[in-house]
Amino acid sequence: MQAKKAAQNNQKSVKRDKKAKMISIQDATCRLIEKKGYENVTIRDIAEAGGVSIGLIYKYFPEGKFDILKEISYQYTDELLMTKKPEKVNFDDFPGYIRNVINNMQQYWKDNSSLTKALIMTALLDSEIVDEVKKMNFKNEYYKAVSEFFCLFKGVEIGDRDPAEVLMDWGIAVKGVIICDVIYSLSLIRSKNP
């Protein structure tokens, strides 16, 4: 019986260790991008800064740097949209929710202006990033879960439409707001670095 408990504790330890290593890789990636710019960061740099092996990075993030950024963006999106904390969302006030999302974006960009600037500049200058984004599957389970979250709001009814299509339509509708927010963030960055 004690051997079984010890095995279970070891499995929990390995899982926590995996999560800690993934966080270390993501944090190292962000720090390096802030310091050197996306294009100048190598997997070897990330491994050294994160205290992990190159092989481990590819085990967790098979497609390298962009895969790491995708995972960071999923976590950021969950935090920003509060999809993992529905108990904190007022599903009767969609406009208020959107205001909170925009305020959260602005605060994140203020708090992480160097990283944001580096990523925006990379996206503007690096066609490989644009190509990778174009290849992303926006109908995967992650985006389906996010779209189903939006359908919980009072007055948001999609009928028999695919929730992922609704999310895409919604995304197009708010794209202008996000672009304005990016421009606002860039103006904050410029004002801090005259």
User: What is the overall pLDDT average?
Assistant: 76
Order of helices and strands: HHHHHHHHH
Largest sheet at a glance? none
Portion of residues in beta strands equals under 5%
Give start-end ranges of low-pLDDT stretches.
10-15
Shape designation: globular
Number of helices: 9
What is the strand and helix layout of this fold?
Elements lengths: L1 H35 L6 H8 L3 H7 L4 H17 L12 H18 L1 H13 L1 H9 L5 H10 L12 H30 L2
Helix pairs in contact: 1-2, 1-6, 5-9, 8-9
Could you give a quick summary of the protein structure above?
By secondary structure, the chain is mainly alpha-helical. The chain has helices at residues 2-36, 43-50, 54-60, 65-81, 94-111, 113-125, 127-135, 141-150, 163-192.
How would you describe the overall organization of this protein?
This protein is mainly alpha-helical and 194 residues long. Helices cover 76% and strands 0% of the residues. The chain contains nine helices and no strands. It has helices at residues 2-36, 43-50, 54-60, 65-81, 94-111, 113-125, 127-135, 141-150, 163-192. The radius of gyration is 19 Å and the shape is globular. The N and C termini lie far apart (66 Å). 11% of the residues are buried.
